């Protein structure tokens, strides 16, 4: 069975002083892809599932996804995407991090 891989992972702030952040990624979806689970951790690196998104069924094309974090943690926020295929096998994206300062401004980190 072919596997899916995440091709991009980026954070976008909707406004510099916004309390919102958007996670965007793209993936070429092929056979047996089931779900994406967005996981978030603070400075303690205690990962929690914050959203599950079903994969799009367009084979061999780049599909784009986005998720809006309406309640980011104060301080550092680490994000990763867990890919789950139809057989239950799990793969993780690279971790991306950003920092909400006391003024709630977003600063992206890689």
Total helical elements: 0
What's the number of extended β-strand segments? Answer: 9
Q: Helix content range of the residues, please?
A: under 10%
What is the general shape?
elongated
Largest sheet: 6 strands, antiparallel
Give the overall pLDDT as a whole number: 75
End-to-end separation: 31 Å
Keywords, separated by commas or semicolons:
three-stranded antiparallel β-sheet; 9 strands; mainly beta
Describe the structure.
By secondary structure, the protein is mostly beta strands. 0% of the residues lie in helices and 58% in strands. The chain has no helices and nine strands. It has strands spanning 5-13, 21-28, 33-41, 48-54, 62-69, 75-85, 90-92, 96-100, 106-109. Strands 3, 4, 6, 7, 8 and 9 form a six-stranded antiparallel beta sheet that branches. β1 and β2 (21-28) form a beta hairpin. The radius of gyration is 14 Å and the shape is elongated. It starts with a strand and ends with a strand. The mean pLDDT is 75.
Detail the topology: elements first, then pairings.
Layout: E1 5-13, E2 21-28, E3 33-41, E4 48-54, E5 62-69, E6 75-85, E7 90-92, E8 96-100, E9 106-109
Antiparallel strand pairs: 1-2, 2-5, 3-4, 3-6, 6-7, 6-8, 8-9
Write a concise synopsis of the structure shown:
This protein is an all-beta fold and 110 residues long. It contains no helices and nine strands. Strands 3, 4, 6, 7, 8 and 9 form a six-stranded antiparallel β-sheet that branches. The protein has a three-stranded antiparallel β-sheet with strand order 1-2-5, with no helix packed on it.
């Amino acid at each position: 069975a072919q596997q899916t891989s995440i091709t991009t992972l980026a954070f976008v702030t909707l406004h510099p002083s916004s309390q919102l952040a958007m996670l965007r990624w793209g993936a070429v979806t092929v056979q047996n892809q089931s779900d994406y689970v967005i996981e978030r951790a603070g400075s303690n690196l205690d990962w929690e599932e914050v959203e599950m998104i079903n994969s799009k069924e367009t084979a061999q094309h780049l599909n784009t996804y986005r998720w809006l974090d309406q309640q980011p943690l104060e301080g550092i926020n680490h994000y990763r995407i867990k890919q789950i295929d139809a057989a239950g096998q799990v793969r993780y994206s690279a971790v991306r991090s950003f920092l909400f300062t006391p003024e709630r401004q977003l600063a992206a980190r890689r």
